[in-house]
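[Structure tokenization] protein backbone as discrete codes

[Encoding] learned vocabulary of local backbone shapes

[Begin record] amino acids and matching fold tokens:

___
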Amino acid sequence: MHRFTVSTSFLVKIFSLAFRIFLGLGTLLPTLSNAQEIEARTYSNAPIGINFLSAGIVQAKSGNYTLTSEVMSLTHILDVGGQSGKLTLVLPYGQLTGSSAIGGRTVNASTEGLSDPLIKASLNLYGAPALTLDQFINYQQDLIIGASLAASVPWGKYDDNQLINVGANRWFIQPGLGASKALGSWRFELAGAGIFYTSNTNFMGGNTLSQNPVYSTQTHAIYYFQNTAWVSVDATYFIGGQSYLNGNPISGNQENWRFGSTLSYPVNKHNSIRLSASTGAYSRTNNSYDLFGISWQYRFGGGL
């Protein structure tokens, strides 16, 4: 079997660069950024039968590299044993451009294509009863406790001759738990998750790239206006994710803090616009990036 031969120190520098680009491109590209994802209102209630169709664009910048992604998603609210739950399918398409000089060598990146789709299921375990649209009018949130499970499908574009791709050529699963507490017009959320990866066994000509789990926690303070618009202040912390090439470590553990904010504004009962931004506040492995996104959401079904 052919093995990619290059100095370990060069690999460490290369992967530090790659991680700055790919470990987390937030709310709209979860398959590339699951650990650093900052997503408010994951554990919230909504009338059963309603669907949310979203389309958006997000841009992340790290050093000389820029990743622009167009993302579509579809979410369906359903009744699971008397509590509300939701199923979400995310389809991202990404374009990456940039170059850097590392160890006297120039690393260029120019690739685009379908990124790995994501499937996510969320179930509220307490405090979010399954209600119709008419019943939901009288619902007042107190404490919601929920669980979620996400999985990526390695269908994205992948070239084993390229160091950086828009597809990962591996699966991951992401179980999570969270809670949301209502205090007047405010919602305070706390959630935790773990991301567990399979190995990419076709990296750079038949090599095996593996990664330890990444563990994360995030918190949100959300304020609701009378017209149902809302704004959130968000923070996330994650740790872990050491990477290996053919069993040999090529990076240390990550430890990162990110902060951000999201604004959702209703245009009418069917349509709303969402703006989001986040930035890295601390990074042990220098893989911070800045992210800006805008998306449109259309609600339908469930009696709307």
Notes: Residues 31 and 116 are 6 Å apart (CA to CA). Residues 8-300 form a domain with the Porin fold (CATH 2.40.160.40). The chain is about 10% helix and 55% strand.
